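Q: Joint fold for the lines below.
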Amino acid sequence: MSKKSLIVMKRFDSKGMLIIPNPVSSESICKSKQLLLIKECYCQNGHNMISNKAIFNGFAGIVIRVRRGNEEGLVALSPVYGYKSRVSLNVCLFDDQIWDICCPQCNVILPVYSSCACGGNMIALFSDKEANFANCIGICNRIGCFNSGIQHSNELLTQTMISDFNTMEPQVS
Ligand SMILES: [Zn+2]
Ligand SMILES: [Zn+2]
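A: Joint structure:
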């Protein structure tokens, strides 16, 4: 891992994120020894979307509501950044569909942070209750696009920057 990414990773400890030892022991699944765990993420109204109703590798997942026309359901995402595990409930997600991503508590549509190269939008999940775009996790709202990034103190941490942390292949339920 590069020195810069290590320094960036260390700073996450104070912003709702934690560096954890990789619980996956199999070298073939994931080579990295450390992972970035998202401990807190909020809608713009301050509701924490981390829920222990969905557990991934022993860690509470991120639960969001997705909506498209009159279809609606809950989706749980792995809180380990870079892991693409996803579980959907009451809803079928197909590649290339674009869904609104909402807070499961107040139903507010989470804000667009930027546009994604795939034609979808990067949706912001805030790292703290201040709901400031300077500290957020961006995920693409187009199914099948695994683009995501972390904006931390106005510094964008992209997946390529921490690719040596997470080398697991995309996994879609
Ligand atoms: Zn909310
Ligand atoms: Zn995308």
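Q: Anything notable?
A: The helical segments are 3-11. The first strand starts at residue 17 and ends at 21.
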